[in-house]
Amino acid sequence: MTPPFGTRLRQAMDKRGPLCVGIDPHVALLEAWGLGDDVAGLERFSRTVVEALAGEVAVLKPQSAFFERFGSRGIAVLEQTVADARSAGALVLMDAKRGDIGSTMAAYADAFLAPTSPLFSDAVTVSPYLGFGSLRPAVDAARASGSGLFALALTSNPEGHEVQRAVGEDGLSVAQSVLRQLAAENADASPLGSFGAVVGATLRDIGEDLEINGALLAPGVGAQGATPADLPAVFGAAAANVLPSVSRDVLKHGPSVAALREVSARFVDEVRSAIG
């Protein structure tokens, strides 16, 4: 039996350091690497990131949209990227942000969380904004396959507060309701639950209970302005379970494999120094 994602993530974070590096082959990065904005460039970019980092960092996070825009050939590159990264020892978090209801949500879960799928990943990002209960097919699929989910809770984009900070009849913000339901899914899990939340590292005065017994994926470190030193103030007592996500501030150092490894190792050291 495959250990639950939360167990494998805790082990990877303790061994390799708490860092998630995105694989975001957007046009500007492809150009900066001297690559074409085409499938060949996409493949070269992805192979290089996997070669450099899959044996070094805890988590790699391909952003599905940057592969989907090339159609079926782009998806084929994504499938290979996932397989190669997992074979090299990294946990793969598919950044797809899927959210729907019923059979459609079940189909999304099959795409990313069924072991028979060519896109099978260790975890996937999901959107709970059709109601947390709409995620049930993905929760059940993740439990069955030993995978995990990261649900959007408190994102760093300025528009996010319109929904996430809205207060319901029970007096809870939407974000706090999501966090509480994630905590319920993680009840009794040890050392870490498999159902995490996305909480932006650029936020201040969060005012929500972030202790969900699961990982907190924290985008915003690097190009968006947050630093590893900010993490204790933002996440408080939950900082030990934070998984900072960095993309551009690592990827801009490619295509040099050595430079990618060097800068990711520096981020790991800075995060460990900040949160212990």
Please report the first level of CATH classification, the CATH class. Answer: Alpha Beta
Evaluate the radius of gyration: 18 Å
Query: Quick one: how many beta strands?
Result: 8
Question: Which residues form runs of ≥5 with pLDDT under 50?
Answer: none
Q: What is the domain total for the residues?
A: 1
Task: Output the CATH topology.
Answer: TIM Barrel
- Main beta-sheet annotation: 8 strands, parallel, barrel
Q: CATH homologous superfamily - what is it?
A: Aldolase class I
Helix-and-strand structural type: alpha/beta
Overall pLDDT: 96
- Strand/helix succession: HEHHEHHEHEHEHHEEHEHH
Kindly state the percentage of residues in helix. 40-55%
What percentage of the residues does DSSP assign to strands (E)?
15-25%
- Main sheet strand line-up: 1-2-3-4-5-6-7-8
Give the CATH architecture: Alpha-Beta Barrel
Lay out the secondary structure:
Layout lengths: L4 H12 L3 E4 L3 H6 L6 H15 L5 E4 L1 H5 L2 H17 L3 E8 L3 H12 L9 E4 L9 H10 L2 E7 L6 H4 L9 H12 L7 E7 L14 E6 L11 H5 L6 E5 L1 H4 L5 H19 L1
Parallel strand pairs: 1-2, 1-8, 2-3, 3-4, 4-5, 5-6, 6-7, 7-8
Protein name: Orotidine 5'-phosphate decarboxylase
GO molecular function: orotidine-5'-phosphate decarboxylase activity
EC number: 4.1.1.23
Descriptive tags:
276 residues; alpha/beta; TIM Barrel; eight-stranded parallel beta barrel; 12 helices; globular
